[in-house]
Design goal:
This protein has 10 helices and 10 strands. It is an alpha/beta fold and 238 residues long. It has one domain: 3-Layer(aba) Sandwich (Rossmann fold), CATH 3.40.50.300.
Length: 238
C-alpha cells in the first residue's frame, strides 16, 4: 500500500465574505502525480496556496506525512518538504538566474548538498546554466518557468506543487515542461499539479480531481476521467 503523503480534510477557505473552498477533501500518495482540474475561478490556486501556508483555512485540516500542518507558516512548510511553483512564475526579475536558484535553498544550510543540487538543476535545465548570470526578468516565458521549477527543486521538496505551469507558453514548450514534470516525478518527487490544460495534465497524472466553484465534484484515475464524457465536454474540448 502506498503511503498517504498529503491529506486534506474538509477545508473551508474564505476571501473576505467569499467562500472560495467549500469542504474540499483530497489526498496524494507518495510517488504520485495528482492533478486538480477545473475552470478559472474554481478554487484550484486557492487550494495550493492553502497547502503552502499562504492562506489559512477557516475549517478543516491539512496533514503532511502524518503531521498536522494546518495554519503553519509558509517558510516552515517549505522546511517540512513542500515547495510551490507559483502561477505566473514569479521569478525575481532584478536578480540573476543563479541568485534566484540560490534563494530556493534559503531554508537549507548544507553547502555541499546545495552545490550538488544546483548542478542537478543545471543538468536538467541546460538553458539556465547558459544564462546563470543573466537577469531573470530578461528570460523568455519558457525559461522563466524552468527557473521557477528549478528554484522550487532547490529546497529538495518531497512534494512539489505546480500552479498552471503551461500558462502563456507555446505548444512545443508546454510538451517540454510536462516531460520535465514527469521526469522529476520518476526521480522520486511527488507532484500535485493544478493545470488549465486538462488534456496535458491528465496525460501524465495517475489520479485527478475536478473542482467546480470551490467543491470537488469528481475524482478518480486520470485515464477514467479523461475518458468521461462529462469531463471531455467541460474541460477537454468535446
Amino acid at each position: 500500500m502506498a503511503e498517504t503523503m498529503l491529506q486534506i480534510d474538509h477545508i473551508d477557505v474564505f476571501y473576505g465574505a467569499i467562500h472560495a473552498l467549500k469542504g474540499v477533501s483530497l489526498e496524494v500518495q507518495t510517488g504520485e502525480i495528482v492533478t486538480l482540474i477545473g475552470a478559472n475561478g474554481a478554487g484550484k490556486s486557492t487550494t495550493l496556496r492553502t497547502i503552502s501556508g499562504l492562506l489559512a483555512p477557516k475549517a478543516g485540516t491539512i496533514t503532511f506525512l502524518g503531521a498536522d500542518i494546518t495554519g503553519k507558516k509558509a517558510h516552515e512548510i517549505v522546511k517540512d518538504g513542500i515547495s510551490q511553483v507559483p502561477e505566473g512564475r514569479r521569478v525575481f526579475a532584478e536578480m540573476t538566474v543563479l541568485e534566484n536558484l540560490e534563494l530556493g535553498a534559503f531554508t537549507r544550510t548544507d553547502k555541499a548538498g546545495i552545490a550538488s543540487d544546483l548542478e542537478m538543476v543545471f543538468a536538467r535545465f541546460p538553458r539556465l546554466k547558459e544564462r546563470r548570470a543573466q537577469l531573470a526578468g530578461t528570460l523568455s516565458g519558457g525559461e522563466q518557468q524552468m527557473l521557477a521549477m528549478g528554484r522550487a527543486l532547490m529546497s529538495r521538496p518531497k512534494l512539489l506543487l505546480l500552479d498552471e505551469p503551461s500558462m502563456g507558453l507555446a505548444p512545443l514548450l508546454i510538451r517540454e515542461i510536462f516531460d520535465i514534470i514527469a521526469d522529476i516525478n520518476k526521480e522520486g518527487t511527488t507532484v500535485l499539479l493544478v493545470e488549465q490544460n486538462a488534456n496535458m495534465a491528465l496525460s501524465i497524472a495517475s489520479r485527478a480531481y475536478v473542482l467546480e466553484t470551490g467543491r470537488i465534484t469528481l475524482s478518480g484515475a486520470a485515464k477514467e476521467l479523461a475518458a468521461s464524457e462529462d469531463v471531455r465536454k467541460a474541460y477537454l474540448g468535446g
